[in-house]
Structures are given as C-alpha cells and as structure tokens.
Amino acid sequence: MNPAAGTAVAVLLSLVSAAGYALAAVAQARLAAASSAAPGGRGALRALLARGQWWWAVGLNAAGALAHVAALHYGPLTLVQPLGALTLVAALPLGAYCARRRVTRTEWRGALWTLAGLVGLVAVTGPAAPGEALSLRESLVVAAATALLIAALASGRLQGSGGRTGRGLGHATASGIASGVASALTQTLTAALARDLPGTEPTWWQTALLAVLISGFATGGLLLSQAAYRGGLAAPLAVVNLSNPAAAAVIGVALLGETFRAGAWGWLAAAGASLVAARGVVLLTRGGGGAGGAGAVVETGGVAGGGVAAGGVDGVPTARIAAPEAEPVGVPLAG
User: Under a CB-based contact definition with an 8 Å cutoff, are residues 100 and 327 in contact?
Assistant: First the structure.
C-alpha cells in the first residue's frame, strides 16, 4: 500500500475509533444517569453487569480500541493520536441529542479549548520512534504506585468537598490513568512475548502476571469511567482523554528516557497545552449539561432521555418516573 493510501486508511480508522468511543461514552453516561443503585453502592456492579446497555458500551469500547490499533498500523502516531481527541467532539452532540437538548455555547467553547490543548499535548509528547519497554521490576513498581493513586482518586480524598462534579472528575482522572498504565504494560507484555524485554528472559508466570495487571487496569479504567459519568458526560470524558496520554508521558519521561519534542520549548509547549485543556474542562463543567448530558431527570415529571426510579442518582431522592428510555443512536437498550 502506498503512503497516501495508508494515511487515508489510518484517518478513516481513527474516525471509526473516535465514533466507537463516543457512542460508548454516551451509552455509559445514560446508564449512569438512570442508575438506581442501593445506598452505599451495594449491588451496583451486579446491576450494571445485568444491563444489556452496559455490554453494548463494552463492545463499542473494544471496537474503538481495535480500530485505534489498526490505525496505528497504517499511519504514524503523530497523526492517529490527535484524531482520537475527536471522541469528545463527537460525544458532545450525541449526548445532547439523546437528552433532547441543544449543546450550549459554553460547552462548544469548552470542547474546542480541550481539543486544542489535547492535540498540543500529544503533538509534543514522546519521541517520533517507539521507545523502550519497562522492565518487569519497573512494571510492578508502576502498577503498585498507580493502584495507590487510583484508590486515593476513587475514594474522593484528593477532591475535598467538590461534590458530585469533583468526585466525577476524580473518577475520570483515575480512569484515564488506569488506561494509560494499561497501555504501557501492554507494550511491556508485547516486548516480553518477543523476548525483547530489558533484563533476563521472563518466565511464564511473570508474563502471566503482566497479562493479569493489564486486564485489571483496563477493567478498572472502564468501571471508573462509568462512575465518572454520574456527574455528567462532557467534562469527565475530557478529563479521561487528557489523563490517559498524560500518564503515558509521565512513564515515558520518568522511566524510559523519553522527553518532549523540541527540548525545553517542548516542555513549555506541553505546559501551555495543559493550561489550555484545563480551561476547556472548567468551561465544560459550567456548560449547563450536568448529569443531564446523557439522560437527565426533569423535575416536572418527564424525562430527557432516561428514567430514574425512586432513590435518585448518587443518593439524591427523586420522584418515581415511569417514562420509557429512548435509545441512543446506534446503541440498543436491553436488559
């Protein structure tokens, strides 16, 4: 395949990947908004696994990941990674459509700011050629440190009194970090299978341990994103998309000898891009969509895209609503 055709295929697959991730995020957000878990979260996971909509979201996430990997086969990372940021741009109008509302001007501004910051961050992150892999010892250290950080973020200890929005952004940060670390460990596992891992040749149980860690972080990232969407769709999704490459960049710089492109100017560009993206997240939290970005409760007795039983969302009491759920585009509701 000639370079031009390869680039076209990479762009097409990147768009498919972004669409898959966006549809999955909308489905997860609607499921979170319509959730009526028992007080204290007891039985929440069991109820989640019993919903067909959840498994459709899992399948869409998997399809998005496969399309992303295929795009990297045909095109360079510097092209594919920025296109992945289109997930936010696609999810915003999809979520608003399912909630029977319009995307606010503040939300569009926030999405554009976040997109600009994310593209700028990806553009200066990492080397043009693939870097080295983590050693087994480094992998275990990274996994342990990440588990502690995720536990702190998920417990809400690092958000203070930020309310549901603060908890949602904390869960979103933890989700992005978990996914980023899973990607780094996947690279290590690939090197181990190719017998190209730094140090001595890994034994079968060491390789199996890496596979278990990858599965754990990938699953944890998915469940944490589900929890994040209880506070809305746009802002948590933006944070997930930001913290994922940020976690990978920290691992690359701290352990793999990587650096930002253009030396000191690259560090300044990364800092500026981070500030731009942070501005976008702030605008998205003020955008007016709230949890209704994918299925809000209307106090007059109706619903916008989803129904919530007595008990409400996150322990907030609401009246019982019997209106049927509307299906998001391309995601059948079942279960």
Answer: no
